[in-house]
Design brief:
Elements: H1 9-18, H2 24-33, E1 38-42, H3 49-63, E2 76-79, H4 83-92, H5 94-106, E3 116-119, H6 125-133, E4 138-141, H7 143-150, E5 163-166, H8 170-173, H9 176-191, E6 197-202, H10 208-216, E7 221-224, E8 231-236, H11 260-273, E9 277-280, H12 284-304, H13 324-332, E10 351-352, E11 360-363, H14 369-381, E12 386-389, E13 404-408, H15 414-421, E14 431-437, H16 444-456, H17 469-479, E15 485-486, H18 487-496, H19 505-515, E16 531-534, E17 539-542, H20 546-552, E18 563-567, E19 576-580, H21 582-586, E20 593-596, E21 599-606, E22 610-615, E23 621-622, H22 635-650, H23 652-661, H24 666-683, E24 691-698, E25 704-709, H25 714-732, E26 739-741, E27 744-749, H26 766-777, H27 781-793, H28 808-822, H29 829-842, H30 845-856, E28 861-866, H31 872-888, H32 894-902, H33 905-912, H34 923-933, H35 945-955, H36 960-965, H37 973-982, E29 986-991, E30 994-999, H38 1003-1010, H39 1029-1039, H40 1046-1053, H41 1057-1069, E31 1073-1076, E32 1086-1089, H42 1090-1106, H43 1113-1123, H44 1132-1143, E33 1148-1149, H45 1150-1161, H46 1167-1175, E34 1179-1187, ...
Parallel strand pairs: 1-6, 1-7, 2-4, 2-5, 3-4, 5-6, 8-14, 9-12, 9-13, 11-12, 13-14, 18-22, 24-28, 46-48
Antiparallel strand pairs: 10-23, 15-17, 16-17, 18-19, 20-21, 21-22, 24-25, 25-27, 26-27, 29-30, 31-32, 33-35, 34-35, 36-37, 38-40, 39-40, 41-42, 43-44, 44-45, 45-46, 47-51, 48-49, 50-51
Helix pairs in contact: 1-5, 2-3, 7-9, 9-17, 11-12, 15-16, 16-22, 17-19, 17-20, 17-27, 22-23, 23-24, 25-26, 26-30, 27-28, 27-29, 32-55, 38-39, 39-41, 40-41, 44-46, 53-55, 57-58
């Protein structure tokens, strides 16, 4: 009997006419399938597996006609793991369907026409509805769509399914997606009269029995696996002679230190040599880059060569009206040449020039399905010669006659490599031609081993996941969503599937407990019950909303929070182009151009869930990046790789022959053998399956690096690295995270005097390793991310709106909240499942334990070596180590990290004192929140029995009267209670003498806390003792009430006040409740839940903010000078001290303090006033870096506040202020004098200070921007010369030294010191912030301020006379060390926040950024938020356009609003003008407010620049040196010009300076409108411009 004799004549005749003969796989499959047995067909690609599975079913449909319900006619179900594969199969079925039908008609036999339908996630809703109304005979679907059909009314169409075909079963069997599918198949069998026949199609897999077990579950499966005749032509190609010498020229003719230009050129040549090529890459990012570069190089070649020298350009994309995706691209494509540029690997993403996609296109999961369909069609039809793909084309899609496959970088596994190379020669009997191109030297060995094992068919072993409880939870909710299900029936059904065949009953019950509400949903809302478990009758029933939850949040593929990319201009939202990673989008801006699918796209708009783009053909484009988990090397492959290196290294003579047999070309052989030889020479050993090498060397900073060389793969190394990190932390008290990779791990240890650890650091007892890794995993980032994914699969993180993107950061936030609750319960199923997944599916812990046993028994040796520099293997490992920290170490950003690490919240609370919340909390808010918590508001009333059960679960026991208040009017709550009581879901309980109703889950809690007798029939599961029953009851009471007293909670439960107080104290120790005074007009201490208080605060503050209407920005500009007393509102020494208190810590140019800042605030200011304060010790000044023109940045401090306002001294190469001469400048260089007569062109002063006080020594400065913890990054001593060190040593004893005294002290050990050298060294220390003086005179003399103090006395004090041995004027006075600054970051942050409120009145982000505070606005915001919570400040939107994060006090806001202008009332009022230094804190422009838009030169907060404000608006900006002026706004009016000119002249006169203005708005000053106003203000015309002499 032949294989075809089993079929009907029509089917046999069609096959015989279409094919020469059945393949072995087809013959074996038909023999097994025809018996009705479950069958697994294993054969390589191109062996006719799909037709083998379908032909028997098609024949049965033709022959066995049945009279079925038209809505239940589907008999064959084909399940594909890929949507595209399903579409491909549907297309390929047309030939046999039509062929058999036509043959039957020709033979005179009945010729029914079976129908075929496709349902997947891409199927439009109307088509899905049509499929449900008229189901096809053959339904092609995906695992997820099958699950959705079984969980909806569409399942009725499946009741007559006879055959289930599962294609590419090996691709899902080893994953949770496969476990999910296995349960769906068992659920399908529950629907059927008898189980359907299952036919699995698989590529070569090992062991076949494991896949067969997965396919059949508890039923036997026949395995059809004929010997494979598949032939491979595999080669490993290296495009350069020496991979260590990459300095040659790439294809673009430019020299490059990268292998990529050579790889790109090699790929281009290979593609042009063949008709069709698929290039596989291991990441989407590399796929996009390679595609762009191949096209760029091809464009260059076409431009350079004649038409006869190169193949003609492939035809452009079709322009058919029915192809929307292609039409949109072709219609918008511009004409003309494209500019090429090298696509070097740049940072995260790289760049391509935007070459037209004429030769290759990218195909991966982030390209839209429409675009992928176009690409696949173009490749099959020959219109496209090359596709660069990821695993998206790995599975069995028929790509037509592909000539060759090129794999860039070694494939992730042997099985993956076989699938990819199998895309070439896909037809029966075809030879699959493949090339592997290693990416770097370390990739040579994996490429060679993979090639060798691919040729031998030695694929990795597949393992079916065991008992994934998250999948069980999801499928349980789905299974009971439509109708009740018996618990035992469901347990038996689950156990029939292979992944759950060994499911313990305890784990099953624990999962049901989770779904039935065993865990507190009041702590995390999504823990609310999803099913009702009737333990008495043994049934499971879905609660309302269960079906919607299962349908909208089902599946196993993790949600990565991707942004959809859509074409602009479509009313329905645009054509979908693809998707981008959330992090990529956050780093992008409107106008950016990126490449996707080989087309450049310009971002037009970014919304909360999509990126809207337009084509940008030919423009240089950024290549996107996508974050993703890359699978580690399997242990089995690692062992083979180790054996390969051992054998090659031990037999160098025969190595070349073996390598040629593995397909390596001569350059690959030379590079690989050299690589192993150099490693052998460097360390004495090559790591192998029998020898592991620990290499130790010092890095660039002198710290130790320990590198473990091991071939066993990341799955083994990652848990090993966790154990090593724990050991380092335990032994050395430092966090030295070990970075693991496929080839070993890297550990960095700080330099110590002790001998660094060696190989012993990596050796563990096998028995201790399991617990050690388990303990460490729980605190790892991997565990947190996997918990998020598991919780989402278990429906604990549901999608509120399935049609909208769920931001990944929000998913992480919710998952962390859930984990915090779940961690309290050791048996929480999803925590256990996450641990199982990490240890079994992600890590290979059994493999690591086996390795430790081999090390202990000496089967594997661990050798140690020390090297002067990293070995070749170590360099490859270190590249990955550095890369991880380059790309992942920046998250969180430095500013956020400073905010997270620097604050001691406990100390901050103590500094702020006890919060007076009675003044802050709104009584109406307290009332409303209390009503909401007690479910008394209209929108929270219970509407049915299920809602009533939730009510009792959330609020605790309630009386019948209390229940009646919380249900919908007209409801019958007593009837609901009786119904719930009969179902054993609620009980009656007598509490404090009153009958209450409570959920049965509270039974043990009420019994143990209050001694409530329990009714008969309470299930045993709810009788287990509770750890803290009183604490649970009191905690729930707190969570569901506004502020309450001890008496309230005690009377509620009939407890003594002492018992209630004790429970509250325990909760307060855990920071779950707080004690204080909260309710206005109440008396005595109250208690409140921490989360409730947060809501009360937030809503009270929101109500307060709504009362404030924001003022325009110019109001802030008018308010700020008045707030800082500008206009001469202060007088005398006390006025000067008040200014210093307000401006304490602000660095300003020394020349500006006495010429502009102090005179503008103190009407009778004289320099002697400041000298008196410094001499008496009430004021201290400190330097912050030198400026050109003998000037420098100086801050003033009161003696009382100086420990918290003085900067922390550090060393470096100069701050931004020193480099640019400004705080927040635009980067323009600063030179010249601020005001004529002040800072001249330089020269040497009497003190010997040249060029602004900088020397050729290492620059030293005070950088207020300390490290993340708020600590100094170094000391002054780190970069001082010998003379500076001698000065510091002399001053270290305390007290003040006159210059001559200091000279004597320094010269005592050095001989005579030159005055000029000593003065220069002294000024170096001044600008370093290390040394100060008891007088401002040296700064005054150095900066050229002409005013000298008149000899007069204030407040009865007098200045000391200048000593005769005082030295030059630039060093007069007594010198001393700057007082030590307090380095506690919390105290400094609190003081900075207070100082900002005092200085600006209204604190905004711009003000904080302009001061360059450590930690930036993030840290200040954190402190000010605590100020707000304690009632010391208010947050609100006080000034328009400056964001919502503004802080002020109540009286300040009222004062700010008083500066609002009434245009009508103020129309006749003359304008008010003030002149300020551009760097003056009273100038809001360039900090809180933006500079006005102006063409040409931009204003900036530069040293020496002056601004003039007219009625708060910027009127004039005067550049440093005064030569150029810009006018704005008010300067257009004559009155504004007059006021501005008068204010400017007044400032010059007060500062005793001269000023010359040469140009106004780029024109010669004389004769301009502003120039005329200046003349009227006293400026005199000169040949150079307008000048005012004082």
């Amino acid at each position: 009997m032949t294989a075809l004799d089993r079929f009907s004549p029509a089917t046999a005749a069609w096959f015989a006419g279409a094919f020469e003969a059945p393949t072995d796989a087809q013959a074996g499959a038909w023999e097994s399938i025809s018996t009705g047995a479950h069958s697994l067909v294993i054969a390589p690609t191109g062996s006719g597996k799909t037709l083998a599975a379908f032909l028997w079913s098609l024949d049965r449909l033709m022959v066995d006609q049945r009279d079925l319900d038209p809505k239940q006619r589907t008999r064959v179900l084909y399940i594909s793991p890929l949507k595209a594969l399903g579409v491909d199969v549907e297309r390929n079925l047309r030939a046999p369907l039509i062929g058999i039908t036509q043959t039957a008609r020709r033979l005179g036999q009945p010729a029914p026409e079976p129908t075929v339908g496709v349902r997947s996630g891409d199927t439009p809703p109307q088509e899905r509805r049509a499929l449900q109304r008229t189901p096809p005979d053959i339904l092609i679907t995906t695992p997820e769509s099958l699950y959705l059909m079984l969980t909806s009314s569409a399942r009725e169409s499946l009741r007559n399914v006879e055959t289930v075909i599962i294609d590419e079963v090996h691709a899902v069997a080893g994953t949770k997606r496969g476990a999910h599918l296995a349960l769906s198949l068992e659920r399908l069998d529950l629907l059927l009269e008898r189980p359907a026949q299952r036919i699995g199609l698989s590529a070569t897999v090992r062991p076949p029995e494991e896949v067969a077990r997965f396919l059949g579950g508890a039923a036997p499966v026949q395995i059809v696996a004929p010997p494979s005749g598949k032939r491979f032509d595999l080669r490993v190609v290296v495009p350069v002679e020496d991979m260590t010498e990459l300095g040659g020229t790439g294809a673009d003719g430019e020299r490059s230190g990268s292998i990529w230009p050579h790889v790109e050129a090699e790929l281009l040549e290979r593609v042009l040599e063949h008709r069709s090529t698929i290039v596989f890459a291991n990441s989407r990012r590399i796929a996009e880059r390679l595609t762009g570069r191949i096209n760029e190089l091809y464009e260059e070649r076409l431009a350079e060569a004649t038409a006869a020298e190169l193949p003609p350009e492939p035809p452009p994309l079709r322009d058919e009206a029915d192809d929307g995706a292609r039409d949109a691209v072709n219609a918008l494509r511009p004409q003309g040449a494209f500019t090429s540029m090298p696509a070097q690997l740049m940072g995260q993403s790289g760049q391509v020039s935007g070459a037209e996609p004429v030769l290759a296109r990218a195909h991966h999961g982030s390209v839209s399905k429409e675009q992928r369909g176009v690409i696949e069609d173009d490749l099959k039809s020959g219109r496209l010669r090359c596709v660069v793909a990821t695993s998206s084309l790995e599975l069995g899609i028929d790509m037509g006659a592909v000539d060759q496959v090129i794999q860039v970088e070694s494939p992730p596994s042997v099985a993956s490599g076989l699938q990819r190379i199998g895309r070439a020669g896909h037809q029966v009997g075809g030879i699959s031609k493949g090339i592997i191109v290693p990416q770097y030297r370390g990739d040579l060995v994996p490429a060679a081993v993979t090639s060798e094992r691919m040729a031998a068919g030695a694929i990795e072993q597949l393992v079916v996941p065991s008992n994934p409880l998250d999948v069980l939870a999801q499928q349980t909710v789905a299974a009971v969503a439509l109708e009740p299900l018996e618990v035992e029936t469901w347990f038996d059904t689950v156990r029939r599937s292979a992944p759950f065949s060994a499911l313990p009953r305890s784990a099953f019950d624990a999962t049901l407990d989770l779904l039935a509400g065993r865990y507190p949903s009041d702590e995390f809302a999504q823990l609310r019950p999803r099913v009702v478990w009737d333990r008495v009758h043994g049934t499971l029933t879905g609660r309302p909303g269960a079906q919607r939850l299962a349908v909208t949040s089902g599946g196993t593929i993790p949600d990565r929070g991707m942004f959809g990319v859509f074409m602009v201009g479509d009313a329905t939202g645009g054509t979908r182009v693809g998707e981008l990673d959330e992090e990529m989008v956050y780093e992008s801006r409107v106008g950016d151009v990126f490449a996707l699918g080989t087309t450049s796209w310009r971002i037009e708009e970014i919304t909360h869930d999509r990126v809207v783009v337009s084509p940008a053909f030919g423009q240089a484009a950024r290549v996107p990046f996508w974050r993703g988990d890359r699978p580690g090397r399997p242990l089995e492959l690692g062992r083979a790789l180790g054996a390969f290196m051992r054998e090659i290294a031990s037999s160098p003579g025969s190595a070349a022959e073996r390598l040629r047999g593995a397909g390596l070309d001569e350059r690959a052989i030379a590079n690989l053998t050299a690589y192993l030889r150099e490693q052998q020479d460097a360390t004495g050993h090559v790591p192998s399956d029998r020898v592991l090498v620990v290499e130790r060397f010092r890095d660039e900073l002198g710290d130790w690096r320990l590198v473990l060389h091991s071939p066993f793969g990341l799955d083994v190394h990652a848990p090993w690295a966790l154990a090593v990190s724990a050991r380092v932390r335990e032994r050395y008290g430092i966090d030295a995270a070990a970075n693991a990779s496929d080839d070993g791990m890297v550990v960095r240890l700080q330099e110590t005097d002790a001998e660094p650890p060696g190989a012993e650091l990596f050796v563990f007892e096998a028995d201790e390793l399991d617990q050690l890794v388990t303990d460490e995993v729980g605190g790892s980032a991997l565990f947190a991310s996997r918990f998020r994914e598991c919780a989402a699969r278990a429906l604990l993180l549901p999608k509120l709106d399935p049609g909208r993107r769920s931001p990944l950061w929000q998913q992480r936030q919710k998952a962390s909240q859930l984990l915090a609750v779940a961690s309290k319960y050791p048996a929480f199923p999803i925590v256990l499942e996450t641990m199982r997944e990490v240890l079994q599916d992600v890590y290979d812990l059994p493999g690591l334990i086996s390795l430790m046993k081999d090390l202990s028994s000496r089967k594997v040796r661990l050798v140690e070596t020390a090297t002067e520099q990293p070995s070749p293997f170590a360099r490859s490992l270190l590249f990955g180590y550095v890369g991880q920290f380059i790309y992942e170490g920046d998250s969180p950003l430095a500013e956020r990290r400073a905010a997270a690490l620097a604050l001691d919240t406990t100390l901050l609370a103590e500094l702020l004192g006890r919060a007076e919340l009675r003044e802050l909390l709104d009584p109406a808010v307290i009332r409303d929140v209390g009503q909401e918590l007690q479910r008394l508001t209209r929108d929270r009333l219970a509407a049915d029995a299920e809602a009533l059960a939730d009510l009792l679960r959330l609020l605790g026991p309630l009386t019948a009267e209390e229940i009646a208040e919380r249900v919908e009017p007209g409801s019958t709550p007593l009837g609901w209670l009786d119904e719930l009581e009969r179902a054993n879901r609620v009980i009656r309980a007598r509490i404090a003498g009153v009958e209450h109703w409570a959920v049965v889950e509270d039974a043990a809690r009420l019994r143990d806390a209050l001694g409530v007798p329990l009714p008969i029939g309470v299930p045993t599961a709810f009788l287990e003792p509770v750890a803290d029953p009183v604490g649970d009851l009191v905690s729930r009471y707190a969570r569901t009430h506004a502020p309450f007293t001890i008496a309230d909670v005690a009377s509620r439960f009939g407890l003594g006040t002492a018992v209630a107080h004790d429970a509250l104290r325990r909760l307060a120790a855990d920071r779950r409740v707080l004690e204080g005074e909260f309710t206005p007009d109440a008396i005595g201490t109250e208690w409140v839940d921490a989360e409730v208080l947060r809501r009360l605060r937030a809503r009270s503050l929101a109500a307060l903010r709504r009362e404030v209407e924001p003022v325009p920005p110019d109001t802030l500009a008018r308010f700020l000078p008045m707030w800082q007393h500008v206009g001469g509102r202060l007088r005398g020494v006390d006025g000067v001290l008040q200014v210093v208190e307000q401006l304490a810590g602000v660095p300003l140019p020394a020349s500006a303090w006495e010429s502009l800042v102090l005179p503008s605030r103190v009407s009778d200011y004289e320099p002697g006033m400041l000298d008196e304060l410094t001499t008496s010790g009430e004021v201290v000044w400190a330097g912050h870096g030198a400026l050109p023109g003998h000037d420098g940045w100086v801050s003033l401090h009161t003696a009382e506040s100086s420990p918290l306002t003085l900067p922390l001294v550090s060393t470096g190469v100069g701050t931004a202020r020193k480099a640019t001469g400004g705080g927040t400048t635009d980067g323009a260089s600063i030179d010249g004098a601020a005001i004529d007569g002040g800072m001249t062109d330089g020269g040497t002063t009497d003190g010997g200070m040249t060029g602004g006080g900088t020397t050729d020594k290492a620059a030293i400065d005070v950088d207020s921007r300390t490290d993340a913890a708020g600590e100094s990054s170094g000391g002054v001593d780190d970069a001082l010369g010998e003379l500076e060190l001698a000065i510091m040593a002399a001053l270290a004893g305390g007290g003040g030294y006159f210059f001559r005294q200091l000279s004597d002290a320094v010269g005592a050990g050095r001989g005579v010191v030159d005055d000029a050298d000593l003065a220069t060294a002294l000024w170096n220390l001044v600008w370093a912030g290390a040394v100060t003086n008891d007088s401002f005179a040296p700064l005054r003399s150095s900066s050229g301020v002409r005013r000298t103090p008149r000899p007069r006395s204030y407040r009865g004090r007098g200045r000391a006379a200048l000593p005769s041995r005082s030295g030059p004027p630039t060093v007069a006075g007594r010198w001393s060390v700057v007082p030590t600054a307090h380095d506690d970051p919390t105290m400094r942050a609190a003081a900075a926040a207070e100082q900002l409120l005092e200085r600006y009145g209204v604190v905004t982000r711009g003000f904080v950024q302009s001061e360059e505070l450590p930690g930036g606005f993030a840290l200040v915001y954190k402190v000010l938020k605590r100020f707000e919570e304690s009632g010391r400040a208010r947050r609100g939107y006080f000034v328009e356009g400056l964001g919502a994060a503004q802080f002020a006090t109540g009286p300040t806001v009222d004062r700010l609003r008083s500066f609002n202008r009434d245009d009508a009332a103020d129309a006749d009022r003359p304008p008010t003008a003030i002149a300020l230094a551009a760097t003056d804190p009273a100038n809001a422009y360039g900090s809180a407010l933006p500079w006005p838009e102006v063409e040409g030169h931009r204003p900036a907060r530069k040293a020496g620049a002056i601004v003039v404000l007219v009625d708060g608006a910027l009127a004039v900006y005067l550049e440093r040196g005064g030569k150029s002026a810009l006018t704005f706004g008010h300067a257009a009016s004559e009155q504004g010009l007059e006021a501005a000119a008068s204010a400017l002249a007044g400032a010059v006169r007060r500062g005793a300076r001269s000023l010359r203005i040469e140009r106004v708005n780029g024109e010669f000053a004389i004769g301009t409108a502003f120039g005329l106003a200046l003349e009227r203000a006293g400026f005199a015309p000169t040949p150079q411009g307008l000048r005012l002499r004082v």
